[in-house]
Write a structure and sequence with these properties.
The chain is α/β, with parallel strands linked by helices. The chain has helices at about 1-5, 25-40, 55-65, 80-90, 110-120, 135-145, 165-180, 190-195, and strands spanning about 15, 45-50, 70-75, 100, 130, 155-160, 185. Strand 5 (about 130), helix 6 (about 135-145) and strand 6 (about 155-160) form a beta-alpha-beta unit. A seven-stranded parallel beta sheet has the order 1-2-3-4-5-6-7, with helices on one face.
Length: about 200
């Protein structure tokens, strides 16, 4: 945070890499304050805060600091819940170039997934969503399934396995993914070999 405040503004960097730094909510909030100044009007494209200890408060702070230039956002393996993802989802509306969102291995439930689903049709460049290892349940998977037809770029990769969902919600997601021609889609908690059965080739 202090380092960001002391640098020329805006910074010319395109990548902010903070993976595996044991960052908690307080640390993320402090960094976010510096980000708002350091990258405003800049060209930051990739933000990686995966594999830390960031919870809802930290992601609420990060959401308020993300610039509209972000293309890749990786926030997996943290402690984000519904409140954190709801804040991130609201921020994504201002990032029309976002292509990849990775939020796997968090504690996100149905409400968080529903808020993300609402914004997906507003992301014209979104190609890949990695959100496995959460707690989406039937509500979350059903919400994503419902908006997929209105998210035309989200056809490269959709990873939603290991999300405590029932068979009906899982089958519904796989069915709509296959119909839309998603290249790679996973929804069940299963081995990679079994997951290959759900890969679909386009064209």
């Amino acid at each position: 945070g202090k380092a960001l405040f002391g640098m020329p503004q805006p910074l010319p960097h395109t990548i902010m890499e903070l993976t595996m730094n044991l960052l908690n909510d307080a640390a993320m909030a402090h960094i976010a304050k510096g980000m708002r100044r350091a990258f405003h009007g800049g060209q930051l494209a990739t933000v990686r805060v995966d594999t830390n200890e960031i919870g809802d408060d930290g992601f609420v702070a990060l959401a308020a600091a993300l610039p509209p230039t972000v293309v890749h956002l990786r926030m997996g393996n943290n402690r984000c819940g519904d409140v954190g993802l709801e804040a991130i989802a609201a921020a994504l509306k201002g990032m029309p170039g976002l292509r990849v969102l990775n939020c796997h291995g968090n504690q996100i439930g149905g409400a968080g997934f529903a808020s993300l689903a609402e914004v997906l049709p507003q992301l014209p460049s979104m190609e890949q969503l990695c959100a496995d290892g959460n707690q989406a349940g039937d509500v979350g998977l059903t919400a994503i399934s419902a908006v997929l037809p209105r998210a035309p770029k989200l056809r490269f990769s959709l990873e939603l396995h290991d999300n405590a969902a029932g068979e009906e919600a899982i089958a519904g997601l796989l069915k709509i993914g296959k119909e839309l021609g998603v290249v790679h889609i996973s929804a069940r908690d299963e081995s990679e070999t079994e997951r290959e059965k759900h890969r679909v080739s386009v064209g």
